[in-house]
């Protein structure tokens, strides 16, 4: 049974019971229609409460959207038609999260009562959709267009208190079910017409039409390249400017457009891949993670300080260890600076910041690590230094403690050898800035135990991160792929492209930042130092451009000049850089040519895909989707393109191979398609 029917005095409680998130699957929709009809036909029933076991529905059943079952009648619109026709009050009792279709169901009720910790929202844009069952309309009519634009384009999950303030809820109660029952009784007893969100008009009268132009521009900038947030603006504008029935129809049309869009499919792939990535092949739910109650971070530099903030934000006391009080003070200054900026932006309160800061301690003494459950080392990328630190950590931390390294490239097994507990040594690679970036690339050493793996995967979620497990190799998943992408950008420079063209093409594709702007951000000296330590196959070469940049002091943003000239973070072209690049082309005897934008895109994305295939071949990543999650969450790959592996599948793996084979004779061995890519091409997909 997915919808239980029971009587509480003269009110029927329809309780949805469809774990894990009570999604509005076909069976639930059928159960609701049946329950509403039964209640309508029973003269002893004066009202209905819709509630759920656990959480109120978190939306349409995403799996049914893929199979098409979401569109089998009764669809949500049919359920809502029954609700509007019954003539008896219906009240939603909201617990947990009422999201998407779940909140649309609640908005169709005549009143909404929520528990204090409940959250509500219409986050469909995250899946490339807009609400399609009157959500944008009813939300706007209850809360006004400005609040609706903000919350729905931003996929907000509003706390109950805020939703009450906005008029989206009628009451907050410790026992929302009991309160909803008496609410329904009061509505039934009042004899007044039943309140309907769709009939409310106060907040949509006299709206300044300029509001929508302003928001469209804002959304175009903030959610660059994304269809759904733009369509949300249109639907909300329709709510304010069109006759009601017409506006509802417009919303539906826009919803259907989004549902059919390639972006929706890509974003749903990302949703599923992100959840799939949490599963470690061979490590089942019987392996319970260790609990992490106290943590330490070694190294108070930018990364270490950011990682300490992640723990503090999650309520886990953390000790920051470094060699000198000065280093610690610099680290704490950085932390305080980040928190102050968050308060200034309004994203954190003073109280929250004071609380987080109270959880961060500092020390120069390894003895202070005697009661921690995990230590994360985040010092400079020097293998010998790391080994020395791990030996210290092994001596000073409790026997059960996990020793993790934030290295982005180094061999985990070499580090583990310095300890007596290699089974508890693991990589936890955070991305900069660590307190902001979502990805946590966990790295499995040869001896890392299943329990350690389960612990760091669970820890990632506690810290609000998206975990992916990688095998131990140079650069793991993300940076190993990146080196070929970065190298290709320099080849394109040698052949005739400019930094501006390359970055423009990649940013137009949807990346947060082009490869050369990214180099400038990371520091060209850092990029060159990493490259110097890498060995290349004999018939391959690195372009000398990066080295020249580093050696001529063009370090990037930090020195005010790199591939661009900088004032703060804003960049502009530097003719001297083009001269440097042209000089390299001349030296190498390369005749510069116009390179079409489409070729630039292909040249940069194919190496990612090919290296991704090798990573799969070697078992460094368990699934193609894991690689997509790394790229979307750690490297700015547009989520609405699904990640590099999804992109390749959509492009056609056969076609990817053809493009590579056409380039291989003139561009070298790195363009030869990987075996795993050929295998996948035979099936047309990675799995
Ligand atoms: N339909 C079907 N399954 C869903 C679902 C949905 N709308 N939302 C979540 N699930 C599944 C997840 O796939 C996951 O399954 P798994 O355990 O097999 O991996 C499980 O429910 C738990 O979800 P998860 O995201 O891991 O849990 P959480 O507690 O971190 O977050 C939510 C719960 C509801 C906040 C989050 O899942 C979410 O945002 N869901 C989408 C909400 C949405 O966009 N609704 C509109 C749909 S059109």
Q: Would you kindly provide a written description of the structure presented here, covering whatever features stand out?
A:
The chain is globular. With 687 residues, it is an alpha/beta fold. α6 (145-153) packs antiparallel against α10. Among the domains are: 3-259, Alpha-Beta Complex (2-enoyl-CoA Hydratase, Chain A, domain 1); 295-476, 3-Layer(aba) Sandwich (Rossmann fold), CATH 3.40.50. The chain is built from 29 helices and 19 strands. The model has no long low-confidence stretch (mean pLDDT 96). It has an 8-stranded mixed beta sheet, with helices on both faces. Strands 1-2-3-4-6-9 form a 6-stranded mixed beta sheet, with helices on both faces. Strands 5-7-8 form a 3-stranded mixed beta sheet. β18 and β19 form a beta hairpin. It is 50% helix and 12% strand. It binds coenzyme A (COA). Coenzyme A binds next to α2 and β5.
